[in-house]
Structures are given as structure tokens and as C-alpha cells.
Queue: 3 jobs
Job 1
Amino acid sequence: MFNGKSKSDNPVEFSSGSNAASLISAGTTLKGDITSNADLRIDGTLIGNINSTAKIIIGANGSVEGDIIGQQADILGKVTGTVTVKELLQIKGSSIINGTIKAGKLQVEPTATFNGNCHMNGVASDKAVQDAKFTKPEKATTLVA
């Protein structure tokens, strides 16, 4: 619509059939927290937290400095904070995540980078998502078997 690219050029599709998705476009910096019941795509920079009951997409040029809570998430950009996803979290391309991941299911591409802790339990409970609080990432710890 704006840049002449067709929908098929977009590697990530929103999950809902409605056109109610929100977009923070490239070149935009937003400071503050976002709460949404619709799909959300970040191609710019967000300094704050995201709390959504739908799918969250962080584009290849997107950056989030804060915590993310959502139903599903696809991350292609950079995230510093805790990512809590009830269903599937996909870490794609040359994405970088620094912080803690809590997800029902996790898919990581070989070119992605993740530094931090990961907690999975097959299906992340509603309680785990509700209990997620916007806090700074925990310090990494070393576990010895």
C-alpha cells in the first residue's frame, strides 16, 4: 500500500483475519507501555512494555527495550527484557534476545541469538502469563549438574 511491496513480500503474517492490527513503523521511537487486544507489529523502536492478548511481531528492524507479554510472538529484530508467550514463540532470522523467555512452545532458527534464561512447560498456563510482571531481566545464572 505505501511502499509498493505486495503482501507476499512480507515474511510474517498476522494471525487474525481482521484488519485491526497496529503498527509502529520504521523510523518511529515510542516511549511508554502498549496494551492491545489486536495483533501488533513493531518495525521501529519501543522503549517500554507490551501486553497483548494477540500476536506480537517484532520486525527485522524493530527493537524493544522492555518486557513482552502475548499470546504468540515472532521476533526478527532485537529485544532486551522478558518475553512471556502463552503459545508459540518464534525467534527468526538474525534476531537478538537478551533476557528471559517464558513460552509454551519455542522455535529458534540457527541464525538467531539468545542470551538469557528459558522456561518452557509445553503449554504456558494462563496463570504464568497473568503473573508475568514488567520487571528488568534477571541476571544470568550458571547451573552445574
Note: Residues 126-131 form the longest helix (6 residues).
Job 2
Amino acid sequence: MDMGLSGKRVLITGASKGIGLACAKAFAAEGANLHIASRDAAKLAEAKAEILKVGKVDVTIHACDLSKPGSAKALAAACGVPDVLVNNAGAIPGGSIETIDEARWRESWELKVFGYINLTREMLTPMMQRKSGVIVNVIGMAGVKPSFDYICGATANAALNAFTKGVGAGSVNHGVRVLGVNPAATRTDRIITLTKARAKTTFGDESRWEELLANMPFGRVAHAEEVADTVVYCASDRASYLSGTMIDIDGGGLYR
């Protein structure tokens, strides 16, 4: 199926690994030209090499820390206004309210919550002036199904779900779609780290982390490529009547 993304300009944050890198590869396969951003310039260079194996597209790297003041504005100035923005950068620690102090809580929200909001702020107005554009927020199922031992992330994700729905409900009046996806546990380095933190809280032993994933739908966690394919679809004209919508990628796990 042709997604109509060939030649489009796509900015993806948190794109050096995991879901972000999988999204970059999926867009490259569709012929989209990419701006990829993350904190680590070396890992971005490695990611660029991997992406170019998938498609002969333009790939520009931007090493930046979107948790820092002014970083979203600087990134927007460096890459211009894309056709598609994928907000994906975020690293919220696992743990309960007892184990995550205020400083750590605020630090993680600067990247995941305010990073998404600030970059959307930079891109949405010019997109609406242009009367075209798509913003896809990669958030997470914890906002829909919160847990005690991932409370910082669950609260952040719930806020971003509301943000996405609210902005997406109004942006359509100016030709712009804003929507999001909520991946459940996905096979990335990050999910292993988070699950180890949960295992430490649950069992007092992080080495037992795989036990917490044993009863997942289909007997496994999601693959990053499955999330990426959904993001690409959401960004394409095939999803042209979707805005203010959240798609839960959880294998039906919400109802188990």
C-alpha cells in the first residue's frame, strides 16, 4: 500500500534507537526524507547509517537535549517546519512515588512532557498557517492503564493523552492533524531497564524482570517495528480523517 509519503519531510525525536529508530526506518522505506534528533551525536550517526540501508533518502542528524530551555526552538530553526513531526523522545524512570523524588520527577518530565509540548508549540502554528501537517505523539499505555510502580510515567502519559486529544480536536480547523499512539511494553533496551525496576519493587530482585512479561498478549511484548508501522499509517493520507485520536497498541492487554 502506497502511503503517499515519498519526498515528505519528517522530524523524529528520540530517533537514535528503539521505537524512534524503527519509525525512521519505516518512513525511509516509504521514501520520506528525515531529520532525526536525540542527545547522542555518535548514536545518531550510527542510526543514520542504518536508515540509509533501508532507503536512499536524505537524513539530517540533530544532536540536542530537548529537556533544556530553548532546545525545541533551536531544533525548529535548524530543520524548519516538516510535513510530519513524531514526538518520541522520553526517558521516565520506573518506581513508586516513594522512590522517585521531586527533582527526578521534574527532570524526566522536562523531556517527555514539556519536550512534546514545546516542540508541538514550535511546529503547530506554522503548520496551521500552511494548512497542512501531521503531528504523531508516541506516548505509552501507562497513561491509560496506570500502575503504582510506574507512577511518574503513568501520570506523564495521561497528561500527554489529554494534550494530544485537545490539540488534535482544534487543529483540524486549520488543516493539521494531531494524534498519538500508546505502545504497551515494546522490546527495546528501555523496556528492559524499566521492567528491571519493576521487578526490584515487586520481587526485590531485578534479575526476575522477565517474569513480569510472561503473561503478555500473544505471549510476547510488542516489536518496535509494529509500533513504527502504526505511526507511519497515522502520518499518511490513509489516516486523513484521524485527529485527536489515540491508538492503543497493546494486543488487547487493557482488557485482560
Note: The two ends are 32 Å apart (CA to CA).
Job 3
Amino acid sequence: MSNLGVAPLPALLGKFFFWMTKPFHFLKDNPVLYRGRHFNIVFFGVFAALEAMSILLAFVFYLGLRGAVLAPVAVPEFLLLVVFVWIGARLFHLFALGKKFLAQPRKYLLQTGFYVQGGLVGLLVWCFQAAPVLQISIFTLMDGLLWAGALGQFWGRLGCFNYGCCFGKPTHQDCGVSYHNEESKVLRWRPDLKGKPLHPTQLYTAYANLFVFIVFLFLLPLNLPTGFISMSLLAAHGLLRIFIETLREDIYFHGKRNGSTLRFALASLVAAGLLGFVGHLVDPFFLESIPFRLSPSWSHLFVIVGSRLYLEIAILGAGLVAFLGYGIHGKTLGQFPVPVQLEN
């Protein structure tokens, strides 16, 4: 068949993703916000703060639609949520290192490193802990947080793009972006990739999560059964991870793939299925269609938050905790700020 001048599908997709991701290209190559004598602050902390605050704003919006009233106890609970997510993300990173961590535990304990799947587990554990405290059903909390988490991941993945982690494989398509700042994590790990176009997998994931958030925003008026959002988003997370990992380069070490990331993605799919079987055991309202107390309108969010100073404090406080937890590095990028004797 003769060539009619129609670009092949990969080329068209490359051009499409180039124009989709181009607005954020300015974020790369400037990972450091502040350079100090004893510590550094990375821009990733700013994105982590935006992620935490956007999650809590959307979460409060969802709970308001459900008619849930957040008492002042929400302040420590929201701060605890950030801690649960941080600990989960940290532990999963160490677990994924496997034998490397066991061989050199001190080295890897000092290194910054987080896995979003672990943060997801921390979020789910928090729901079980917070349900009796906030007097809100487990799956109401879980539905709201997982939906809000999709919005938060938009900001979080922009932070990954800025910091240079979770980077993609080399590509010749128009969508490729290259890193030149040697302080970017991609070049600290793989100096050979300097200037080479890579798939901006962080931006692909950011857009995918934003799309999921918007889709379910329009589905909210349908009064989806309690727990349906949780199962759907856990499954969507697993499927997205499996697809994105076909384009990621950072999961390879010396040419060998780290299988933990795929297992975590599959575990998300399994968890979505298990909820369908055990949901009734942990929440009597599981899969019940409970009408919203309010119609979905963002004006309600401003009323709810604006009329409760403690919610504003909780959201800003959570942002500050996230900034400190993810943004402060030691004298060396990629390490926690610890006393010199511990580094040595």
C-alpha cells in the first residue's frame, strides 16, 4: 500500500503527548529550592504540600456531600493521615529494596525514597483507625480519600517530574523530555541519560489521575454505592501502574527489573476484588446507595471550610507536615538530614 502521508499511530501519539505535557516542561532541571550549609530543600516538598492540601480539600468536599460533620478532632486526625501515608510509603520503599536493604540497612535508611503504593496502604489503615474517632463509616472515608487521592497524585507526579524520579525509558517520539541538571535524580542515578529524550511517565501518570478524578466527579450525583469508588480506583491504580511500568526506566537496576513494583500493582487489583467479598464484614453500609445530603457544588466546600477555622488549620498543617516530610534533605540530595556522624 502506498504511503499517503498519514503519520503512523506512535508518531501521532508522540505529538499528542508532547502538546499535552509541554506546559509542564519548565518544571524539570530545577529540583532544589534552597541550598544550605547543612541541609537542602527540594521543590518536591512544595508539590507534596499541594498534594496533601488538595486531597484534604476534596475529601472534606466529599464528606460534606455525605452529610458528615467534621469535629475539631479532625485536626490531629488529618495530621495523622499524612504521617500514616509517609510511613507506609517509606516502608514499602525499603521492602522493595529487598536483599539490598538487608545487606546495607544503614545506607538505605538514610536515603530518601518512597513508594506511592505504600502510601496507599497507609491511607487505608488510617481509615480503619479514624472511622470510630470521626464517627464516619470506613468506606465513606475510603471512597472520599481514594477519589481525592487521584487529584493529589496530579500534584505529586508533577513533583516527581520536577525532582527527576520515576523517569521513563528513552524515546525518539516528540513527547520525549531530557534532563540536564545533574542534581536531578534521574542523572544522579543514570548519568548516561543526560540530554537523552525520555518518556515523561510522571506527566502521563499525572494526567491519568486528573482524568480519573474528573470522571468520578461527574459520577458523584449518581449516588454510587458505598465502596464502589474504592474498588474502582484501586483497580484503576493497579491497571495504570502495569501500563506505565512498560514505559519506565527507573525500575531497572543494572539491566534487571525490580519485580516488586509489578507485584504492588497486582496487589492493588487483588485488593479491589477482595473488597467485594469482605466489604460487608467491615462496614454494614458497604454497597448501599446512600443519597447525598447536599448537591455536588464547590460552593459548599467554601462554606464548610470557611465556617470552620479548625479545618483550615488542619489542611494547612497537613501541608506543612508533608512539606517537611518530603522536602527537607541533608547536605547531600537524596539523604535525610541527619547528624554528620550518622552519615559516616
Note: Residues 97 and 103 are 10 Å apart (CA to CA).
